[in-house]
Design a protein that fits this description.
By secondary structure, this protein is mainly alpha-helical. The protein has 2 domains: about 15-80, Orthogonal Bundle (DNA Binding (I), subunit A); about 110-175, DNA Binding (I), subunit A (Orthogonal Bundle), CATH 1.10.30. The protein is about 65% helix and about 0% strand. It has 7 helices and no strands. The protein is elongated, with a radius of gyration of 30 Å.
Length: about 180
């Protein structure tokens, strides 16, 4: 579903104590001439925040509480727009293109020929294995194959591609 447009009149959300701490640390770093990337700054702030005791965190918790009260007060006066106003602005859903039931079945890749061959054996060995685990195992086995071991599956894929091209040509000519 597409993201709805944000109401520009809605009050800004509440900042947490950690966000106030992070902003404070960023200002301090800039004041001392240290420019950090966002990821580096986040890691440093996370580690520092974790090491702070409750007394050191208290000023930031006070700022967060003050910001929460500001938000609640602003929300009392806020009237969100009605849904009927925004309905006209919503993009229309695209209808899913219907597949022609007479169209030929697409060709299968070498990997899928390999998977079709290996799946029953894996399921027989471990019947309680999940679909995801089967797929992971098949992928692992495929990656372990050498180029020579993949040739029979690549040949099957090529034959299937020729089949599809032939059937598709007949299908388009019959329309």
């Amino acid at each position: 579903m597409p993201k709805s447009k944000k109401d520009p009149n809605k009050p800004k959300g509440v900042k947490s104590a950690y966000i106030f701490f992070s902003e404070h640390e960023k200002k301090e770093a800039e004041r001392h001439g240290r420019a950090l990337l966002f990821t580096e700054h986040s890691k440093l702030c996370g580690a520092k925040w974790k090491d702070l005791n409750d007394d050191e965190k208290a000023p930031f918790h006070k700022l967060a509480e003050k910001d929460r009260k500001r938000y609640e007060k602003e929300m009392e006066d806020y009237n969100p727009p009605s849904d009927s106003d925004s309905e006209d602005e919503r993009p229309k859903k695209k209808k899913k293109k219907q597949k022609d039931p007479l169209a030929p079945k697409k060709n299968v890749t070498a990997y899928f020929h390999f998977a079709a061959e290996k799946r029953p054996g894996i399921k027989a060995k471990t019947p309680d294995i999940s679909v995801t685990e089967v797929a992971k195992e098949i992928g692992k086995l495929w990656r372990e194959l050498t180029a020579d071991e993949k040739i029979p599956f690549e040949q099957k894929a090529q034959e299937d591609k020729v089949r599809y091209q032939k059937e598709f040509e007949e299908y388009t000519n019959s329309r």
